[in-house]
Amino acid sequence: GLGLIVLGHGSLVLGAIVHGSVLRHVAGARRAVTPEYAAANVVSVCSGLLSIAAGIVSILVSHNLSRAALHWTLLSVSLLNCLLSTVCSVGLALAVALTVHSQGTHLVRGCNSSALPVDARSAIATNDCPFNTTRIYDTALALWVPSLLLAAAEAVLSGRCCLVALVFQGIGPCAHSYGKEQV
Asked: At 183, which helix (H) or strand (E)?
């Protein structure tokens, strides 16, 4: 539970920083940011919030082992978080792959400057493009990779919480080794 809370806060903070330092500048007045980046960022923030909720529910379950309603709540919240964190990992991997493959041109698509070279890492700030594209490219990659790792860890821990909730309900392969007396 504590691990999910810590990972969820980290994912939430990284998603907010990506939005504030990268996507805000890239979108600009035209809102020309590609949907892949916006969707990956929104799913990352939602995954962080749901991880925090799953962590809180798992801590509540650990202190109230006899309440079946909490077991079902843990199962549903952790299953949803496992799926959302997996989707978040895939989305962030897609965002990183698109950015690296296009050398940052998809990331700075909203900047319609003719002075931009093919590689966004070697571009400079111009009057048409008010932000430094090199900083945007490097910052996006530096924040997406840890976000990807956090989302993958959230998916694993949420999967474990799902298994624990199933065991508490007597469902699954490990459930037969745990009796109601042990729980």
From this structure: none
Nearest to 99 by CA among 107, 91, 110, 90: 107
The pLDDT confidence band at residue 29, using thresholds 50, 70 and 90, is: very low
Q: Record the pTM.
A: 0.78
CB 50 within 8 A of CB 77: yes
User: Which tens digit of pLDDT belongs to each residue from 58-67?
Assistant: 999 888 877 8
Q: Which two tokens stand for residue 63?
A: 């202190």
Q: 157-182 b/e with 16+ CB inside 10 Å = b?
A: bbbebbbbbbbbeeeeeeeeeeeeee
Q: Which two tokens stand for residue 22?
A: 């990268």
The Cα–Cα gap between 96 and 145 comes to 8
